[in-house]
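Q: Can someone sanity-check these two? First one:
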Amino acid sequence: MATLKVLIFLIFINRCFASHLSEDGRLNFLELATKYGHNAIQYIVNTEDGYILKIFRIPGKRKIPILLMHGLADTSDTWVIRGNSSLAITLANDGYDVWAGNVRGNKYGRNNIYLNPDTDKEFWNFSFHEYGFYDLAAIIDTILNITKVSQINAIGHSQGNAIFYVLCSLKPEYNKKINFLIALAPIAFLQNIKPPLKDIIEISPIINKLSQILNIRELFKKDSVLIDIWQFLCPEPIIGYISCVKSVIFPIAGYDSEELESNFVPTLVGHFPNGVSEKNLYHFAQVSLRRKFAQYDYGENNIAIYNSEEPPQYNLSAVTTKIYLFAGANDKLATLEDVAILREKLPNDEYLLLPRRKMNHADFIWGRHMYEYLFPYIFKVLRNF
C-alpha cells in the first residue's frame, strides 16, 4: 500500500510539472514545426462516417504534395520529433509540400459529430479497416481539393502502409489519385512474427474477450495511469532505458541502441504510444493468427455482416499504385519473410532491403542517423518522379 501511495504521488508530480519530458516531448506538431523553422498549417478533415481529424501541412514550392502516414499507436508528430533530422523537416527544407495525416482515435482524431470518445464505446468500434476506407480516403480528397492537383505522393510507416492497401483494394479509383507510395517497414502479412510478440498474439483471443468484459475500448489514452507511469519512468537515463526501450520497444521492433539512444527517450515518450482502439490491435492479431490479410473476423456474425462465414480478404491485386517496399533486415514486425509474401501479391512494386544490417522497425522514423542510411533512397524515388 505504501508503494502504491508513493507511485500515485510521483504520477501527480509528473502531471503537474512534466519534468521528465524534454521540451520537444511536450510540443505538438505545429509547435515542433515552428521550432525547426517552418510555419505549419492545420486542416480539419471530416470523414464519411462522422469522425473529425486534424492534419498538418508544411507548405513548399514543389507542386505535388507528399502525404506522410504514421504507424500503429502513433501520430503525425512522429515525422517531426527528430527535429532537423526528421523526415518531414528534411523534406520541407528541400521545398516539398509536406502533409502529415492522422487517423481516428489518436490525440488529433478524438472527435466525432455524434459520439464522445470518453463516454460512447461505439466511438472505438474501428480498426485499420476504417483507417483506410474512411480516414485515408477523406485525407487524400481534402489534400487534392486544397492543392488543386490530381495526384499525391505518399510515404507510410508500418500500419501507415497497410491502410493504403485497404483503400486501394476496396476503392480502386484511389489508385489514380496516388502517384506512388514509399512503404517504410511494410506491414500487411504478420505470420512470421517472432517472440515475444508472437506469444502475445497467440493469447490475443483471451485478451480480447477480457477487454470486452472489462469494457476496455481505448488504449494508451493521454493522462491514463499507464501513460503517466510510462512518461515518468522511461526518461530516467538508466532504469528507464532498460525498462522501456530495451525491455519493451526493442523486443518488438528489433534491437538497435545506436539509433534509439537514451537522450532521445524524453522526447519520444511524450508522443508515443498514443490513443488506439483495442479492436485495431486485435484485428492485426487476427491477420497473424489466420495468416490472411483480411477484414475483421466477427465470428458467428460474419454471415450477417459479410454474407459469408469468412471475412473477405483484401484484394491486393487491385492495388495498382506504384509501391516501393523499403525493408529492414533487423525488423521484427515487418519481417523479411512477410514482406516477401506481400511482394508476391502486389502487381506494381519495387523492393529495397536497406543496407544497414541493424535496421529495425523504429529506425525508419526515429533513427538518429536516418539522413545517412534512409533518406538518400527516399529522395532518389522522389527525384525520379
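And here is the second, same format, sequence then C-alpha cells:
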Amino acid sequence: MEQLEQLVELLEQLEQLGKLVTQRQAPSLLVLQPTSYCNLDCSYCYLQHRDDRARMSDATLSAIGRNIIAPCPPDERPLVVWHGGEPMTLPVAWYEHAFALLERESGGLPLRHAFQTNAVGVNTSWTDLWRKWKVNIGVSLDGPADLHDSRRRTRRGTGSHALVMRGVSRLQEAGLPFHVISVLTAQSLSRADDIYDFFTGQGIRNVAFNVEEEEGQEGGSSLLATSQVAEGYTSFLKQFLRRCAADPVPFQCREIEGVKGLLAAPHDQRSDNWQVDPFRIVTVGVQGGLSTFSPELIGAAAPDYDDFVFGNVRDGGVQIMQESDAFRRAASSIAEGVAACAADCRFFEVCGGGAPANKYFELGRFDGTETLHCKLTRQITLETVLDALDAGVFDQPPQGGFLHDRSGSAERHAGTESGRR
C-alpha cells in the first residue's frame, strides 16, 4: 500500500510539473553570463571556460530582450543578474550599451539589475554606472586575508584579498550598499569569531554564507574530506549566531533572516523552491545557450542532458526549451527527486526538494535525495537557528508551529499536523 501511495504521489508531482512546463513563461530570475572569463583563479570555481574572453553579442542581448523579458507581464519582469566568469572584466561602456539595449528590446520599461563580482577593479566609472542604473551589488569575499587568499587567488598565484578590499573600500566611499557572499571551507569552520570580527571591523554587516560545494570542474569540496563537517558547521553557525545576537548594531545574516522569513511565511509558501520549478530561473550563456533550474548547471559536462543547454535564445525563449528532449529528461528526473524528498524527508516542507545542481554533482543524478549541501544549508541551518530563536537568543517570538515541538518531529519544521503537504 505504501508503494502504491508513493507511486500516486510521484504521478501527481509529474502531472504538476507538466502544468508548469506548459504554463510558466515569466522567469523570476534571469542569470546572464556576459563572459565566462575571470581575472582570478579560485580553487573552488566550477566554470569550465574561465579562460575564454568571448563576450555576449548584441544579437544575443537583443534576443534576450525580445524572447525572454518582453513576454513577461510588466509587473513580473525578472531580476537580471550579471554573473560570470567575472562580469567586471568587460568595460563599463559595454554595460551602458547592454543595459540600454535590453531595455529597448524588451519594451522600454526599466529593468532591475544585479552584479555578483569579486570587486577587483572597482573605480568611479563602475560606481557611477551602478548608481545610475540602481544596480544591486554582491561581493565575493571569504573573510580574513588568510582564509580568502587560500582559495581566491590571482592568475599569478598570489592572494586577491588586498585587491578585493580596495574595491570594497571604493564602494563604501561611494556610499553604495552591497552584500557579501562568503564561502565556508573546512578551514573556516573553526574561525567564526575571526570571520565575524573581520566583517564588522570592515563595516560589512550584510553577509550570506555558501558552503564549498562539489560542482562542475571543481576538484572536490574540502568539506567532503572532513569527517566532522556537520559538527564543525553547527559549531560555526552557533557561534556566529551568538555574535550577531550580542552585537548592539544589527548584522544581516542570510541564514538567520531566511529562517525568520520561514516563520512568518504562509504555510503554502514555505516549500517554494525556484530551482526545481522549470523556467522560474532562466540562465543565458555567453553564446546564447539557454538553461533552467540551477544556474550552475549550464555548460557542465553532461552528455545525457546536452550539457544542460536546452536551446539558444536567438531561436526563441521558454518555448524553445520546452521542445528540448534534454530538458524533458532533466525535468522528469528532477521531479522524481522532488517526489522522493517529499516522501522521505521531514524537512521537505521548508525545502521543496533541494538544489538540482547539488544532487547532480554530489550524487551523479537528479532523482536522489539528501546531499551534503542540503544537510548543512537546509537541515542544520534550520535546526540551529530555530534552537537559538526558541532559547530567546534573538528577539523573535515563536510563530507558525515551528517551535512548539522540541522533539524534532516534522511538525516543528512544517508547521502542520501531518508533516506533509
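A (reply): Looked at the second one. Residues 2-23 form the longest helix (22 residues). The beta strands are 29-32, 79-82, 112-117, 136-140, 179-184, 206-211, 252-253, 281-284, 290-292.
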